[in-house]
Amino acid sequence: MIIFIVLFFVVFIGFLIFLSSYELRDFVAEKFQSIFNKEKLFQAKKFAHELNSSSSLNQTQSHWHLQQWWILVAGLLLFASIIIFAFTRPISPTEIEADYLRKSDPQIYALLNGEMLTPPPEVDEKLVEEAITAAMILNSQNPDSTNAAHSAEHNLELLQQRDHAVIDRKWNKMNPRYKQRLLMVFKIMKERHGYELVLLEGYRSPERQNRLSGNKNTTLAKAYQSYHQFGLAADVAFKRDGKVVISERDPWAMRGYQLYGEVAESVGLTWGGRWKSIQDYGHTEYRMPGLRKTKEMAEQLTSETETGNS
Ligand SMILES: [Zn+2]
């Protein structure tokens, strides 16, 4: 914008000088005539004619030097088309996401330094299924002696991850404000602590939320009361030697959950492991300032950047 204003100003000044100086106008008019006099025009016409006829078959020998002009023209056209292509290519999804964050959440945008993180591929259903089975076996072998209710609770949580048809393990409905924070947690966990995270559930439909809240041991939140409906919450597990690990009875995983909680809190997320009633170690959420827990807001937050996801 500033460039345009400066450019306009320069042109305007030049125009004023031109208007106020008779000598300058005279000089320009003379130059103009000398360039476009009849002689020059005739020469140009002749050249154009020769250039055109040089491409005919019987002149390939005698007019080869003119044909080089055709090559130059073709080269220029090719170059121009590359330039046009480069400047008109569609805006990438990450650019949309970056634009969204720059406007809505400058804090995380600054933290990311303009570089949008890309989500890992969706976790294999078979691996999740195996992890659930392994965790339930571990749970029955080592029942929680001090808190029997917690064992049952954990089993229920595991069973709820079996609802494959309706569980969303993708990243596309998550709001970038949460998504980029969580991806940063993924990155730090891997680079600093050597834990690979996998996304178990991101967006959760209001229907599934209501079904879950039917059992008060797992969640008390009804539809539009959980951050999952706003694309602002997720549940994660770990990956070790190519296998998914969900169990809280696994000391390695439990250590991972503690670190996950610390890292998540450091980027402004709320960790479910700190909750008093029902601890949810894999859960984090972003308590977005100004959030209204309504259906409209949920739909807006989960869809407005849908094009901004890969
Ligand atoms: Zn959750």
TrEMBL record:
Protein name: D-alanyl-D-alanine carboxypeptidase
Domain Peptidase M15C: 222-286
CDD domains (alphabetical): L-Ala-D-Glu_peptidase_like (cd14845)
InterPro entries: Peptidase_M15C (IPR039561), Zn_M74/Hedgehog-like (IPR009045)
Domain of life: Bacteria
Pfam families: Peptidase_M15_4
Transmembrane keyword on record: yes
Gene3D superfamilies per record: 3.30.1380.10
A GO MF label: carboxypeptidase activity
Entry keyword set: Carboxypeptidase, Hydrolase, Membrane, Protease, Transmembrane, Transmembrane helix
Taxonomy of the source species: Bacteria, Pseudomonadati, Pseudomonadota, Gammaproteobacteria, Moraxellales
Segments passing through the bilayer: 6-24, 69-87
